[in-house]
Amino acid sequence: MPARLRLRLQKMAKNKTGTVFYCHNCGYESAKWMGQCPGCKEWNSMVEEKAAPGAGSLRGTGAKGTGAAKPSNLSEVSIQEEERMQTHMEELDRVLGGGIVPGSLTLVGGDPGIGKSTLLLQVCRHMASDGRKVLYISGEESLRQIKIRANRLGEFSDNLLLLCETNLGTVEQTIRSVHPHITIIDSIQTMYHEEISSAPGSVSQVRESTNVLLQLAKGLNVSIFIVGHVTKEGTVAGPRVLEHMVDTVLYFEGDRHASYRILRGVKNRFGSTNEIGVFEMKEEGLVEVKNPSEFMLSGKPEGASGSIVSCSMEGTRPILLEIQALVCHSSFGIPRRQAIGTDFNRVNLLMAVLEKRLGVQMSDCDAYVNLAGGMRIVEPAIDLGIAMAIVSSFKNRVIDDRMIAFGEIGLSGEVRGVSMAEQRISEAAKLGFTTCIVPEAGRSTIRSVGGVKVIGVRTVQDAIDLI
Known about the structure:
The protein is built from twelve helices and 21 strands. The chain is α/β, with parallel strands linked by helices. Strands 6-5-7-8-4-9-10-11-12 form a nine-stranded mixed beta sheet, sandwiched between helices. Strands 13-14-16-15 form a four-stranded mixed beta sheet.
């Protein structure tokens, strides 16, 4: 055998028992480090881990004893919708699409201390009160710590079972023996598989642990919630393939030092995406906010320039929010621009449109835009509100407190139509607004709403003339 071939075989054998490289974004595996992942084309995403001996022989635990899988005809597949389990928390049920689907796998992510464990423990309390068997598995807290937190939430029934364990094999055996309706895993980064030599929380451990839980959920028809830690970028720690494996991905957002939290659904195989639920953190736990629009507008100043109310759609729910702008002359050569709650680049684009199409010269002015209430909105429908708030502050003109505006602004200064305009106007009418500025493009399709004057505009100049 040639020496070069022998050396190459020795390197390959060493790699099998040494280390491998995983892409934490898509899970691609390679024997050597590469700057760009061949799978997802992401740069600097390869991480080194010890190779798992015999990892390729790991099999889905939910398929034991089921025999070979057989294909089915599409016409023979039943599409009868299963009855969902209600959590008795309307905000959570809305985000999930109407309740918990049996056999589903849900990922809940969020910053440390935001309230993920509190939310899931409240779900356990409600489900156990309905007579359903619930299993709460914690790898981070002791039984005593969970008991202390549970005492603040209220009384729990005996249908709630607790387990403090990080060994995935023990967790699997417990789920099979107890066979609960709902299982909580807190958190997936603490679980480890004995056949994988890497540390808990690594790419291979998180991926394999999620795969085992997925097989358990589908094989035993158990609804499983897994808690995921997030990175400094705001995404769930571990491989990005984790979000592709689960059925639903929920993100718990908000400042842990503030009282309000927003639960956002970014993926849902059983319902619409981008639904949100609003909660308030109190001493007795998370309390639902039934009317988020009223909460977002609380404390709105009256008779102040640079303030207007706009409407955004979060899934199927219209939410009114206050847009604030402050424009003042700059003392520096390069003016400052800052946006809180919306896209910074979008604000710069709108200011460029105002300068070019309306002749509003703000090149020597600092500009600050804020969405009051802590919401983050990227929908283009709030463009018209942002533009009107900026001009109102620049010219120091007060906008009517009972007026709202929504519409997308193009680069030519035109106001484009947005979806679900009638639902937005109805939400404004509920809170006492009397005037709505909407795009003229969809004005004819809007039915009249009692007590609300609807004004259609074609360009942003038409809207500014109404201030």
